[in-house]
Amino acid sequence: MHTLANGIRIAYRFVGHTQIAHCGIMLDIGSRDELPGEEGLAHFWEHMAFKGTEKRKSHHIINRLETVGGELNAYTTKEKVCFHASVLDQHFERAIDVLADITFHSIFPDKQLELERNVILEEMSMYYDSPEDAIQDDFDEMLYPSHSLGNNILGTAETVRSFAKEDLESFIRRNLDTSRIIVSFVGPTPFNKVIRLVEKYLFDVGTASTERQRVKPTLYAPEIKTVSRPITQAQCAMGRPSFSLSDPRRLPFFMLVNLLGGPGMNSRFNMALREKYGFVYTIDASYTPYLDTGFLGIYFGTEPQQLERSIHLIHKELKKLRQQPLTTLQMHHTKEQLMGQLAMSEESNAGYMLMMAKSLLDSGKVDSLPEIFDEIRNVTPSHLMDLANEMFDEKEFSYLTFVPDKNAK
Fold first, then answer.
1. CA-CA distance, 284 to 116, in Å (whole number)?
2. Is 123 exposed, middle or buried (0-12, 13-18, 19+ CB in 10 A)?
3. What is the rounded distance in angstroms from the CA atom of residue 296 to the CA atom of residue 240?
4. Segments making up each domain of the chain, as ranges
5. Smaller CB count within 10 Å for the chain: N or C?
6. pLDDT tens digits for 294-325?
């Protein structure tokens, strides 16, 4: 770790067996920081950052890394905005130069504003036409009603059409805090060189702070909602609010959700709904923690006539975990599977670079795999059974279902 004079921190991990440098600038600013009428503004900023700076036009930004085989990208979440790049180590200076430029020196040209507005409206249409994506966004609104965490990251067509340059500048100025920015690096470049180049391109970023206070959502009440759409397959989202990032039950609950509907083909939901009955092609359960809350989400698609039966099977699996503690062998397999998945995810240097930045912003540290494994090994069947009884109460679940519109042609 190294901290610049302006408060921006550098997080560094040396990996000598690669020629690729992965770096990113992550800011603790996301869609939950938007005010009413600003929905979609953080995501709009992410797009507009590539459309022109004080010294580069948009095509110069695109070509700066592409011409040397590198990649430049960005993403927006509810609580973060990140600009990141991957290049051959010999071109690392190019990467940090362009990342610093688009993050801190974008000028949001009016002509590009209008072009990108149309691009984002097309992006919104694309997601609307993909019911498996749209249902997850709409489900957020049910879990966090009247709260910015429930807003679609893309915003609405109305808000996107309204954004002007001044809105972007005001949003950034209101939320920017240099002590909540991480420059993350994974690769073979020596630490001293990384520090020197980051200082070279970020020296002119003035110290900034914010008194922003994120408001915790409090209005949740279970809801059941069915929406008719021009689709052929029924889509279902079900779940409830859950534990925050700082909650000590976070890792055991993640283990429990991973057992139910994680990426393994042997997840309980996959075995019950796909392998035994053939009701679904995919089904997954996920746990997403935020600063002050979190949520459990279960998502699947099935034929309309199999919808109720699928929901029944899901509740059957949830009931098993509430009533039957895992055996010693089941507990062992659950732990080993999760530890293997986490170890494999750390093999991705690009993914580790992004995880390192997020972890530092969220908790002020990056836990090592041995530390995480020790915590996993200490989880007992009674821990998981207690969590299942606390979080798998069917009366606390909300349900959002997209069903085929019988009148659609």
1. 33
2. middle
3. 5
4. 2-202, 224-404
5. C
6. 999 999 999 999 999 999 999 999 999 999 99
Q: What are phi and psi of 290, to 5 degrees?
A: -120, -175
**Side chain identity at 232, as an amino acid letter?**
T
Could you tell me if 73 and 110 are in contact, meaning their C-beta atoms sit under 8 angstroms apart? no
The answer to whether the CB of 94 falls within 8 A of the CB of 70 is: yes
Give Cβ neighbours of residue 137 (< 8 Å, ≥ 6 apart).
127, 152, 153, 154
Q: What is the CATH number of domain 224-404?
A: 3.30.830.10
Cα separation, 142 vs 43, in Å, equals 21
Find the helix packing angle between 110-128 and 131-143, rounded to 10°.
Answer: 100
Question: Which residue type occupies 56?
Answer: R
Beta strand 20-27 with 181-187 is antiparallel
Domain 2-202 has what CATH class?
alpha beta
Q: How far apart are CA 84 and CA 95, in angstroms?
A: 9
Return the percent helix, strand and coil in the chain, to nearest 5: 50, 20, 30
Q: Do domains 2-202 and 224-404 have the same CATH topology?
A: yes
Average pLDDT (125-135) is 92
Decide: helix, strand or coil at residue 13. Answer: strand
Q: Are 145 and 219 in contact (CB under 8 A)?
A: yes
Residues 63-107 have pLDDT tens digits of: 999 999 999 999 999 999 999 999 999 999 999 999 999 999 999
Write out the two tokens for 23. 């770096």
What digits encode the pLDDT tens for the residues 106-115? Answer: 999 999 999 9
Question: Residue 209 class from Cβ within 10 Å (0-12 exposed, 13-18 middle, 19+ buried)?
Answer: exposed
Task: Please give the single-letter amino acid code of residue 273.
Answer: L
Q: What is the mean pLDDT of residues 120-129?
A: 94
CA distance 371 to 376: 9
